[in-house]
């Protein structure tokens, strides 16, 4: 199989793997907020609390994220689709399009997410055209009144009610 065909199949499988959506933020050396939309997010460890995501080497804020500092992962709520697009679009002043504040840890925190993890970088591992960032959680919060966003085949939205009426619960 040719490289292109293998990449197409890889993208087809990954694009059909349902995920949530996050926005990951940090600051520049001069304290300006930066961030991007991310769905490569995953859980790593419970003790201590660790998570990971991967950043494309073409991202404009690459050095801010791989510099070994802190970052915040926002697990988006179902109604935050517009924000999800904003943080994946060029030529937009992303932080003027949302309400946010600086946390005690010096991280830009966007209002209205389902959950937020504030992390210290534990390890940055270069892997192909991405760097995997493993974060150790230093602070976290959840908004129990919100529901998370679902992302599948380039569509963002709420998890449909009928999904929970199916007969295959884990326990
Ligand atoms: C649903 C979704 C998931 C994404 N996941 C990632 C990701 O995991 N890692 C990444 O580097 N870019 C990811 N991107 C792309 C970036 O959000 C996008 O390229 C962004 O514009 C990069 O920031 P920049 O414009 O400052 O370079 C994703 C985009 C979308 C819409």
Automatic annotation (TrEMBL):
Lineage: Bacteria, Bacillati, Bacillota, Bacilli, Bacillales
The protein's name: Flavin reductase family protein
Source organism superkingdom: Bacteria
EC number of this enzyme: 1.-.-.-
Keyword field: Oxidoreductase
Origin species: Siminovitchia sediminis
InterPro entries in the record: Flavin_Rdtase-like_dom, NADH-dep_flavin_reductase, Split_barrel_FMN-bd
PANTHER family: FLAVIN REDUCTASE (PTHR30466), FLAVIN-DEPENDENT MONOOXYGENASE, REDUCTASE SUBUNIT HSAB (PTHR30466:SF11)
Membrane spanning residue stretches: none
Enzyme class: oxidoreductase
Family, similarity comment: Belongs to the non-flavoprotein flavin reductase family.
Any one GO molecular-function label of the UniProt entry: oxidoreductase activity
Gene3D superfamilies: Electron Transport, Fmn-binding Protein, Chain A (2.30.110.10)
Residue ranges of domain Flavin reductase like in the record: 14-158
């Amino acid at each position: 199989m040719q490289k292109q065909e293998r990449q197409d199949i890889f993208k087809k499988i990954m694009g059909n793997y349902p995920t949530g959506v996050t926005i990951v933020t940090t600051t520049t050396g001069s304290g300006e907020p930066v961030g991007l939309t991310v769905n490569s997010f995953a859980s790593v460890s419970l003790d201590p609390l660790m998570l990971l995501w991967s950043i494309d080497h073409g991202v404009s804020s690459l050095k801010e994220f791989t510099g070994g500092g802190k970052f915040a992962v926002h697990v988006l709520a179902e109604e935050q689709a517009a924000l999800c697009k904003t943080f994946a679009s060029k030529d937009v002043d992303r932080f003027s399009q949302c309400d946010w504040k600086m946390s005690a840890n010096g991280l830009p925190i966007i209002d209205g997410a389902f959950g937020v993890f504030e992390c210290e970088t534990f390890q940055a591992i270069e892997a192909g055209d991405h760097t995997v960032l493993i974060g150790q959680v230093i602070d976290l919060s959840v908004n129990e009144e919100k529901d998370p966003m679902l992302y599948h085949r380039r569509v963002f939205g709420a998890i449909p009610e009928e999904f929970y009426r199916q007969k295959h619960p884990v326990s």
